[in-house]
Specification:
single chain; 411 residues; mainly beta; Immunoglobulin-like; 7-stranded antiparallel beta sheet; 4 helices; 35% strand
């Protein structure tokens, strides 16, 4: 009987069978399920009685653009049944009435049906206990907006000299005034989220990349009242509207990062220049256009004294006794920080969870002329007529990405 089948029909039959078995194989693959069990732990001595069901646990696939979001039960437990793959975990929760937030993170791990694969190739249980960071919220001074991605010239070339950051007094109605005098701004090493590893991971001090900047003043020169904000031009405090599609008039901002010794930096009359402190790693401020991690901090001593104390605050990379030396700062000095990733796949962490438990990233192509900006805290409208922005120390939930540029002009 088979010999009577026409060749074309036989080929079709073979294709149909192959397609069928391929579909069966795909269906079997999709049935492959791995389970990870997460248990949240409130640290001893925190004094916090929290409703753990209000916490969000986000399990993100590191090789595909999808994630799973769940809230735990009252004991802080939750299970995820997902496809095997590489994942990380980000945890955030906010308790406005208690004026605290919680966060935590687990860096990238490989999850299989049998458990989690360790660095040496062994497999351990996929039961993960995570100790929460319990943080007092309401830090008066925050980074409200960060524009680092660049845009283009009218001729279509890449343009990056118009970058800026905006600071905001987030204390709300009845809050405290904030003086910016001696406030320092720095980007953190490694420069990019794609560096592969972070030798400072898990340490209490954080390395500064190349240089840092200080707002001058006598202690009472530059005040931000609750709800007020100011913009700092990061490279060129000039009018960019004749040069680039962003059309930013950064000659009208209050502050600019400017030093005569740095090539490419510009400043217009009327803009207050910040003081530059070189850290011996080059002559350009390496504020990444792809994935900067940026912080604002205050030293407990005079900034000049901190800078002069090389034996205490300047050191080699952990594990090395030669090469580049880095100034470093304790994480407790940091008032606020935001970590930006180029993309979530393979992104390293540079800031500790107490500063930023995760990261934010721009989805548009580089030089998109967009920024990351804080989300409003809607719950604050109950007690403050002044805008209050989200500040849970988790930029994944605190920031909007691909936002339009909105610097603050003061004249």
């Amino acid at each position: 009987m088979i010999s009577n089948i026409k060749p074309g029909l036989l080929i079709c039959a073979v294709i149909i069978c192959a397609s069928f078995f391929s579909c069966v194989k795909q269906a079997e693959d999709l049935k492959s399920v791995a389970t990870v069990n997460v248990s949240l732990v409130i640290p001893e001595g925190s004094g916090a009685a929290l409703d753990l069901t209000e916490i969000e646990i986000k399990l993100s696939n590191k090789t595909a653009p999808f994630s799973y979001i769940e809230s735990p039960d009252s004991e802080g437990k939750v299970s995820f049944n997902v496809q095997p793959g590489k994942y990380d975990i980000l945890i955030s929760g906010e308790y406005p009435k208690k004026k605290i937030s919680v966060n935590a993170s687990v860096s990238e791990f490989l999850l299989t049906e049998k458990g989690i694969v360790t660095d040496d190739g062994s497999i351990v249980s996929a039961d993960i206990d995570i100790v929460l960071n319990v943080i007092k919220t309401g830090s008066p001074l925050i980074i409200k907006e960060l524009y680092y991605h660049g845009c283009s010239t009218f001729e279509g070339a890449n343009y990056t000299k118009d970058r800026y950051l905006t600071l905001y007094n987030n204390s709300g109605e009845g809050g405290e005034d904030v003086y910016l005098d001696s406030l320092c701004i720095a980007t953190i090493f490694p420069h990019n989220s794609t560096s592969g590893s972070n030798p400072w991971k898990g340490r209490d001090t954080i390395p500064i990349a190349q240089m840092f900047w200080m707002i001058p003043g006598n202690g009472h020169s530059y005040c931000l009242h609750p709800g007020e904000e100011t913009t700092i031009a990061m490279i060129a405090a000039v009018d960019h509207s004749p040069r680039a599609t962003s059309a930013l008039q950064l000659n009208r901002v209050q502050f600019g990062c400017y030093s005569e010794t740095l090539p490419g930096h510009e400043i217009a009359a009327g803009v207050t220049p910040l003081v530059c402190y070189m850290c011996g790693q080059g002559t350009a401020w390496a504020a990444s256009i792809h994935s900067p991690a940026i912080v604002i901090f205050k030293t407990p001593m005079a900034v000049d004294d901190y800078y002069a104390d090389i034996s205490t605050w300047k050191t080699y990379e952990p594990g090395k006794s030669s090469g580049t030396e880095y100034y470093h700062i304790p994480k407790d000095w940091i008032l606020d920080g935001v970590e930006c990733a180029d993309k979530p796949e393979g992104a390293i962490k540079r800031l500790p969870s107490t500063i930023d438990a995760s990261y934010v990233y721009i989805r548009a192509a580089h030089y998109s002329g967009t920024c990351v900006t804080r989300k409003l805290d809607d719950s604050a409208s109950e007690w403050s007529a002044i805008k209050v922005y989200k500040d849970t120390n988790n930029s994944d939930t605190d920031f909007d990405h691909d936002a339009p540029l909105n610097p603050v002009y003061c004249r």
